[in-house]
Amino acid sequence: MITKTYDNTRTAGLTSQAAAEAIGNRYALVLVGARRMRELSRGDASKLPSKHGSAVTAIMEIEQGKVGLDYLLREQDLEPRRQRRIRNTF
Considering the entire predicted model, what is its pTM? Predict the structure, then answer.
């Protein structure tokens, strides 16, 4: 297992190799990363301090073990978001 630690200023040269190894395979990485990226784009709090965009932050969270494969199995709490969206449209 390759374990890398990166400082919070890294964006150029970002690879998903460590994240793919943390999850197990690249297909699962795409599923977990996409779900986490959507949540971050909607305004959910990041699990680590980051000034980067949602895609880089999601990959970094996976690399550091903050988000794992079990993330796909948990139920999403969409109701508060739907309520918020309905209230803000009027």
Answer: 0.67
